[in-house]
Amino acid sequence: MHKIDIHIIVSSTNSPLHRLSKLLSISISRSCPKTEHHMKESWNSNHDLQNIIIPPHHEKISFDVVQLFPSMRLRLIVIGIGKRWHLIENHTLLSKDEFLEAVNLIFKNTHSQFDGEFYKQEDGAPRGLPLSPIVANLVMEDCIENCLRVLENTSNFEPIILRIFADDGLAVIPRDQVRNFIRTFNENNENLDFTIEKG
């Protein structure tokens, strides 16, 4: 039985920061190639991944981040952009300081209206902004890079397959490393909470 997540998505169309968010998202998307772990579509519709042959003593697991967008801290986003600035700077007229100032402006000043009341989002990335899924990919890619490095150095293993789609992941790993795998991901950052489902 699969869990059902319900997310509130507030459209930012016509909001004061929508056009700026769109501009920054285009700069990042055009400059940062997806890693080998990224998928363009969910594995539920990906035939190749549905028919994976699992080697002996290995297991296929799916994992995801609980509420990725609200859990992303601005610090993680700034780190992700900073690591890739040598690529991003070729697709924007802004300096690095101006670009990061714009990112900070967007994520610190997002408001929504419900039932006649205005609300300000204090943490995380609003789902309705064009920039949010773009920086979410950066955060997830950095998380995977860090965790794979730790697993290789401490446990001397790499997943046979590791793919991500948005906040969901799929991996084929040694059966005796399942606990270590998810523990490593949860210890990578205190704000990102990973859950796991076997089979």
Present the secondary structure layout:
Blueprint lengths: L17 H14 L15 H4 L7 E8 L2 H4 L2 H10 L1 H4 L7 H13 L2 E4 L2 E4 L10 H25 L5 E5 L2 E7 L3 H11 L5 E5 L1
Antiparallel strand pairs: 1-5, 1-6, 2-3, 4-5
Brief description of this entry?
The protein is α+β, with helices and mostly antiparallel strands and 199 residues long.
Walk me through this protein's architecture.
The chain has 199 residues and is of the alpha+beta class. The protein has a four-stranded antiparallel β-sheet, covered by helices on one side. The model has no long low-confidence stretch (mean pLDDT 84). It has helices at 18-31, 47-50, 68-71, 74-83, 85-88, 96-108, 131-155, 178-188; strands at 58-65, 111-114, 117-120, 161-165, 168-174, 194-198. Helix 4 (74-83) runs antiparallel to helix 6 (96-108). The chain contains eight helices and six strands. It starts with 17 loop residues before the first helix and ends with a strand. Strand 2 (111-114) and strand 3 (117-120) form a beta hairpin.
| Radius of gyration, CA atoms, in whole angstroms | 18 Å
General shape: globular
The N- to C-terminal Cα distance equals: 11 Å
Query: What topology, given as strand order, has the largest sheet?
Result: 4-5-1-6
Residue ranges: pLDDT <50 for 5 or more in a row? none
What order do the helices and strands follow? HHEHHHHEEHEEHE
Count of helical regions: 8
Sheet with most strands? 4 strands, antiparallel
